[in-house]
Structure formats: C-alpha cells, structure tokens
Amino acid sequence: MLNLRWVWHAETREIFDSIDPELWAQTRHDPVRLLAEVAPQRLAELAADRKFTRRVELAVAELSDYLTEDRWYQEYAAGNADAPKSIGYFSPEFGVTEVLPQYSGGLGILAGDHLKAASDLGVPIIGVGLLYRHGYFEQSLNNSGWQQERYPLLDPNSLPLRLLHDHADQDKPVVIELPLDGRTLYAQVWVAQVGRVPLLMLDSDIEFNSGTDRDVTDRLYGGGSDHRLAQEILLGVGGVRAIREFCRVTGTPLPEVFHTNEGHAGFLGLERIREYMTGVDGRPALDFDAALEEARAGTVFTTHTPVPAGIDRFDRELIRRYFAHYEPLPVDRVLALGAEDYQDGDPTKFNMAVMGFRLAQRANGVSELHGEVSREMFHGLWKLFDTAEVPITSITNGVHHETWVHPALLEVLESARGNGDTILDGYDWAGLERVDRATIWTMKRRMRIDLVEMARERLTASAVTRGLPSDWTADVLDPDIVTFGFARRVPSYKRLTLMLRDPERLKRLLTDPERPIQIVIAGKSHPDDEGGKRLIQQMVQFADQEDVRHRIVFLPDYDIAMARPLYPGCDVWMNNPLRPYEACGTSGMKAALNGAANLSIRDGWWDEWYDPAFGWAIPSAEGVEDPNQRDDLEARALYEIIENEIVERFYDTDSHGLPQRWIQAMIETVAGLGPKVLASRMVRDYVQKLYTPATASSRRVSATPTSAEELAAWKRRVRELWPQVSVDHVESLGGETVEVGATIDVSALVRLGELRPEEIEVQMVAGRVGPDDELLDIQSYPFPAGVDQPDGVRRYQGTVSTHRAGSIGYTVRVVPHHPDLASDAELGLAALPKISEP
Ligand SMILES: *Cc1c(COP(=O)(O)O)cnc(C)c1O
Predict the structure, then answer these.
(1) What is the DSSP pairing of strand 362-365 with strand 197-203?
(2) What residue ranges line ligand 1, CB within 6 angstroms?
(3) pLDDT tens across 445-472, in order?
(4) CA of 86 relative to ligand 1 center, distance in Å
(5) Which pLDDT value is given to residue 171?
(6) What is the pLDDT of residues 190-248, one digit of tens each?
(7) Distance between CA atoms of residues 510 and 628, nearest Å
C-alpha cells in the first residue's frame, strides 16, 4: 500500500474496490484512508474469505516480482558500458496520483509519468521534489462562476509516504541543512515509493525552523519571488543533499546523471559544483572551472516553455544576496551563469533557463517543434552558429498508458495480442483490428457512461456549493451523443473561450435536434491570474444557460481523479492554443490512446504526429497580426470542421447502428499513435540519447584526478587565444553558389595563432541561400588535415557534394575541437571569413 504501484495496477485497484466499494469511491480511491476507515467486521470477514486472501497473496507476489525482476533497462545496461548506475530527476512538481496533490498541470503529470515509466522499464531513477503542505489549490466556483481556491492542509502521516530515517538510529529522521540568506534552513525528507522508483520530497515544516522558514514548502507556486527562490534553493541544493543522505542510508548508488526538469530545479548544478570544490567522495578539491566541467558533463536540462513570460527569472541582486555566503562558490561566477548577456537580454535579471543551459552539457525541448522554437529563443547564447546548430535537441513527451488508458481497453489490447511488432510494453496497439466492431462501440459507450456519471455527480455537488438549484444536474449529458473534451490549465495562450467566439453558432451545434454535440470542460486558473479567472467565469456563465446546460458543462477542480475517466469518455479532444506556445501538450495523447480523435491547432506534439487518420488540424492563422482577427479565423475553422466533418462522420451509422468510419478511425488512432505517445518511449529516448552519453562524458571528465582541470584549462586557453584565429582567404573552383548535385571544391587559408591544428576543426558550411543572402539549414563538413604554409598560415582543401534542392551557398569556418565537447557550438566560438566592406 505504501508502494504506489497500485496507482496504475488495475488488479490491485480491484482488490481495494472489493474491500468496500462504497468507501473506495468515497475516499476517492485512497487506499490509506480506505484501510484506516473500513469497518473491523468487514476486515475480519475478508480475512476468513479464502478467495480474497488468495487474490491478495497473488497480488503481493506479483508486486514482489515487479520490484525485483530484470526489466528492459537491465538488458540495456548489460550491453551498454556507459549506462548510468543511477539518475537523479529533479522537478518542482510531481503528479503521481490525486492522493498526493503536488502538481498544477502538465509539467507535474509529465514528471509523474516519467517516474512510472522508468519504474516499469527498470531504469534506476531517484525523483526529487518538495512536499507542499497545502499542495496546489482545490477549485470550486461561486454563484457567479468565479473561481474559489481552497488549500486544505495535508498530513503527511496519513499519506502513502514514509519519513527518511537514519539507519543507524531508526527513530532519528534525516534532517537536511542548507544556507539560506544568512540563516540555516532545515528540511526533512519524505519518500514516496513509485513502483521501483523512490521519490524524495523535502519538507521544511519542522520545528528546527523559524516561522517563515517552516512555510518555505507551504504551497506550490504561491508567494513572491523571495519565497519562490527559497523553494528553488531547497529543491536544487537541498535535493542534492537529500539524495546523498538517501543513498547513504539505503546503499543506493549515487546518481551519475542529474536531470533538471525545467529551470526551477537548476540550483542543483550549483550544489554539485560546490561539492566538487570542497572535495567529495575522497577526491581532491577542484577550482571553480574544473568543478563546473564535472557538474556539466553529467547534467541534462529540459526546458518546458516557449512562452517568454513562462521563463523563470529573478532580480540579480536577490541572487547576489542569497548566494553571497555560499562558500566556496564565488558569487560573481554564480551570477554570470544566469546572466542574460546577449542582445535584448535584461542585465538586471538572473535567468534560470540560461543557467540551466550553462550548467548542462545536454539540453532538450519537449517536442520537435518546441526544440526548434527553443533553438530560436536561446540563439543568443550561441549567436555565431546557425539556429539549427544551437545545441538544444528534443525528446517528445509521452504519457503512461497504464495510468491513462481505460482498464477495459487495456484488457482488450492485452488479450487481443497478435504476434507482430505492434506489441510494445505488453499491449498490442493494433489489437483493436482483431476485435469485433460492435464490441468496440459498446466499450466506447461504456467509457462515455463512466464520464457522464462522474460529470453528473460533480455538477450536482457544485450546484449545491454555488447555491444553485440542482434539480437538473442528474440528467445532464447523454452517452449517445458525440462528446468533446477540453481540459487544461487556463493561461491565456490556451484560449479556453475560443469556442465561444460565436456563441449562437456553438448553441446551434449543441442543440441540433438530429445531430447534437456535447462538451465537457475543466481547468484551473493560477490564483493570481485574474484574466484566467474571467475566462472561466465566461465559460461557466455560458454553460449555466438553461437552453444549453444539459450539453455543455464546466466541471470544477480538474485533477488526476477527474482526468482518468474524462479522456476515455471523449470522442473528440479539443485543443486550440496560440501556436507555437504549447511546448508539447499531453492531454491529447491520453485521449488518443483511448480512441479519441484530436481536433487541434498543429502545435506541440500534434504538429509532429498529426495525420488525417487521427483527427483534424485547425488551421493556425499565425500570419495574422491582429489577435482578434486571428481568433475569429481560427474559431470559424473550428466550427466548420465540427459541422462538416465530425458530426457528419459520428452520426453516419450502418443498419446496425455502428458508425463504421468513426470506429475505423478509433482503431487507426490507437494503432498509429499508441507506440509513439507512450511515456516508455520517452524514457527510453532519454536513456539512450541523453542519460547514457551524459554518463560517458561524466566518466571521461572524472577519469583521472586531473582530467576535469585539464578540460577546464583547455577551454580557458582556447577562449583566450581565439582572437588569433582567422579565415584569411577562401578560394573556390565554382561560383559563389552552386546547383544541387554539384561538388563544391574549396581551398581556404586559415590562421591559427598559438592554437595547435588538433585543437580546431576547419569546416565547410553549406546551406540554402535565404532571402537576405544568409545560409539556412546548414550542414558542416570537416576538411581533411591542412598543410602548413609560410607566414603562420595553413591551407585546408576539401570537396563536398550537395544533395539539397535550391541553390546552395557555402562558407568556411573554424571551430574549437576536443573529444569532450558534445557539439561544435558548445563553446559558442567560431571564426568566419572577414566580410570585406565595399
Ligand atoms: C494531462 C494533464 C494535464 C496536461 O494537459 P496539457 O495537454 O499538457 O495541457 C494537466 N492536468 C491534468 C490533470 C492532466 O491529466
């Protein structure tokens, strides 16, 4: 029960349900409360029930196998010497279960799914977060539809958590200490066991702390910037210390890779630098530069937002104050790490994303489009390179299927397994092809009924809270009507109310006598976001109207408990963000796994995997400057797709009442997207593309007591001598541009100054010629070794054949070269031919 595997293990949940179905529903599926509250007679009865006890024994044995047997990672690690022994995964929020409300939205759910998938795959991750005593708020509505926030106090002792104790003295909880603005902050560590993965949660609400310090972990995303900074220092600095304690007490190997999930956790890099500077694990103390190399090599940073206002920044002076006495780190070096020292940067700000990139040798965005947008957004940090070369890659988010797919559908995908390669992680994503269509449709109807029942219950409760009559809520929605879902946080870019652009048109769709639609809406607005609350109110007031209220509902308090029946119950999942502000989006993936079609702007993941077989793309009017006009255009396209295509297809049934084309699309959606959108695919990607290379780098840079210092010294030397490097002359045997298929034959004269030839690489850089004569989509090709010429010049000569369309331009450049660099752009240094002014 303390192991949270029950969160996604259907059979264990069935056991809890069978103990006392009413209480299980009442406790909102919280086994800790269930077992605390169940009547003793009932327990005695069950203990005497042979069938029940055998089921429990089986579940216990199954869990023990799950926790100990070799899984995907064990085989992977056997074949990969550089697979890490352990990984630390830091995130400001974790959405593992509604029972632990430590998340506000997609970022937290993603982190929770990352841990669950890592557990299933056997990846040795240790999660690190904070335990917010009030979590994120619970949402209700007042009479007029205005959001109300409640922050119930959580008692960690009644949650599925255990306090980390020192094993030498089981009564003594481990207490972490860290410097905070001239004081010492203390925190205890709660451990949530997510299958095989421990999640450490730091909690400052202990008696060692003074009043305000006890409140550091009071709530998620509350308070001003001092408060937020204190939280982030606790998460990053305290988190590294908590991992050390956890590993010492439990004998777990220390992480070789540290993953910073979003900038908020970035201070972990500073703590690791501090450790290397003071000398840890019997190693000699390093200077700042060498310590930085050690820390960077094993750090992965994932950026999560393309919304500039979403980037976490602090006043520089605040950082100076908090890190003034963080010995032996020089505060000026700390400040330099977060400095926006590029064009259009603000010199008074300390930017957590910028620090994230400087402290991590490897970084990524969370969808292909978001990777591209991030490379543009942070181009200033590598401005001598083409946008495409900015060293930020992408790994597209995924969702944990056993958490998010309806148990009935999972059962089908498991039992209808063929023997093809469409089986992934135990389920055959193409399995629906082998299932009778009527069965599929009955199952989908069952999912809709689950949603309708949940919605009626919640609406009835909400009507009471709002002081409204509830005589109509018992029969809202209809399990035979095409059901749309729209649920997510409510920042303005997500445009909750776009569907209200033409209210009369929406009403006609909802109340069509022959072919109506129905919509289920949910979402919380950040407590300080008045604009978001206004949008919710607008939505609620529309849905309150008597002529539509049975077809469009706003359900308060969107959380995991609501989300689980919501996605399967929908036929169409709607998403209309302002492109390209949705970094990835994951709710549409969860809906798709349950056979829903997506109706979405091509943003985030949907830009990457959109296919007419899986749903519809709302055309994005990005070129239109006037936001009102843009909304009008996009809303009109939305209505048209619903009227002309969705409604038409859903209600096009055969003589048995089956919408054959719709069912076919369901089958294709699950088969086509299933394998792609899984969190297990995402975690494998992280392991193979980032964690393993980071481990290799980390081991190389710490191979000998001096290797980090040597790398740091080399970088210093290259930076210092770089002004001496130049490309003096480029000579070609063709024109300035060449046509596709041609070979480019170039010779260049390069001056290296005091640098040695093996410390640089001379490259031919070719790309399409853009409208301003710039090179686009460039590719670089190293020249063969050069030959010394008189006067300190070297000649490099090479040939490249082009395969690209359009006219090709090229140039020659010199970049630093070292086996421990992860990309040519890493140092941000390049020498290009001088442009001769006419
Ligand atoms: C999946 C999920 C989200 C994230 O949805 P987006 O599509 O990324 O906006 C937010 N909240 C809950 C409860 C979820 O389950």
Answers:
(1) unpaired
(2) 105-106, 109, 488, 558-560, 563, 585-587, 590
(3) 999 999 999 999 999 999 999 999 989 9
(4) 28
(5) 85
(6) 999 999 999 999 999 999 999 899 999 999 988 899 999 999 999 999 999 999 999 99
(7) 24
Of 9, 8, 35, nearest in space to 20 by CA: 35
Centre of ligand 1 to C-alpha 468, Å, is 29
| CATH fold for domain 73-394 | Rossmann fold (3.40.50)
CA 795 distance to own-chain centroid? 47
Q: What is the pTM of this model?
A: 0.96
Q: Which residue in 297, 296, 234, 238 sits closest to 269, CA to CA?
A: 296
> pLDDT value at position 773?
79
CA of 586 to the centre of ligand 1 (A): 6
Q: Give the pair of three-digit tokens for residue 599.
A: 């109706």
Q: Prior bond to 328 cis, omega within 30?
A: yes
3-state DSSP assignment of residue 558? coil
Residues belonging to the chain:
838
Q: Where are the domains of the chain?
A: 1-69, 73-394, 416-676, 719-816
Pocket test of ligand 1: the residue of 399, 573, 587 to mutate, having most ligand atoms within 8 Å of its CB, is 587
Say how far apart CA 251 and CA 255 lie, in whole Å.
Answer: 12
Q: Which of 579-593, 705-719, 772-786 has the lowest mean pLDDT?
A: 772-786
Pick the CATH number of 416-676 from 3.40.50.2000, 2.102.10.10, 3.40.1500.10, 3.60.15.10: 3.40.50.2000
Give me the phi and psi of 49, to 5 degrees please: -90, 105
- Quick check: do 73-394 and 416-676 share a fold? yes
Output the CA 21–ligand 1 centroid distance in Å: 28
The region that residue 584 occupies, defined by phi over 0 for left and psi between -120 and 50 for alpha, beta otherwise, is alpha
Q: Are 536 and 490 in contact (CB under 8 A)?
A: yes
- What the block records as the tokens of 242 is 């908590």
Burial class (CB in 10 A: 0-12, 13-18, 19+), 656: exposed
- Architecture of the 719-816 domain: Sandwich (2.60)
